[in-house]
Amino acid sequence: MEKKPITPEGQKKLRSELDHLKNIKRQEIIDAISEARAHGDLKENAEYHAAREEQGLNEARIRELEEALSTSQVIEYKDLAVTDRIIFGSTVTIVDLETDKKNTYQIVGESEANIEENTISLTTPIARSLLKKEVGDVVEVSTPGGVKEVEILEIKLI
User: Could you tell me if 67 and 111 lie in one domain?
Assistant: First the structure.
């Protein structure tokens, strides 16, 4: 099985979430199910059904996290000390040449990508087009809205 790259920070975050779901959330759901059962008739017990559904979602997320962690390989990108070009783990500031809008992203593994935290998977079209590029390079990036030209303003290893 091919290992998928993950940052040390991403691995720590996924392990922390997994630990919380297994050791805290799981018990909270079990308690909620027990409490709902005590209320009697299970067929018409909305609390019971909601708790069972939450249990299913929690167990699915646990399996998802376990799978992601078991198939990942930590890449110590900071040890590589590459700051002249974009690599896995780089934090990149780009500017859209058409709109002058600046964005900063860290290129991370699939399982840790979260656009709300400005982390993008190295498998996305934008990350793939930025890899190995340098500050000052103008790059064509495929986006859902079409091809955009962006300029690389800064590359950091945070």
Answer: no
* Rounded Cα–Cα distance for residues 83 and 91 (Å): 10
DSSP 3-state helix, strand, coil percentages of the chain (rounded to 5)? Answer: 45, 25, 30
What are the tens digits of pLDDT across the range 127-153?
Answer: 999 999 999 999 999 888 889 999 999
Number of domains in the chain: 2
All residue ranges of the chain with pLDDT < 50 are: none
Task: Name every residue whose Cβ is closer than 8 Å to that of residue 135 and which is 6 or more positions away in sequence.
Answer: 84, 152, 153, 154, 155
Residue 16 belongs to what domain range? Answer: 4-74
> What is the end-to-end Cα distance of the chain in Å, rounded?
30
Residues 60 and 98 in one domain: no
Phi, psi of 99 (to 5 degrees): -105, -10
Amino acid at 92: V
CATH of residue 39's domain is 1.10.287.180
Query: From CA 5, how far away is CA 112, in angstroms rounded?
Result: 10
Kindly report the pTM of this predicted structure: 0.83
pLDDT of residue 145: 83
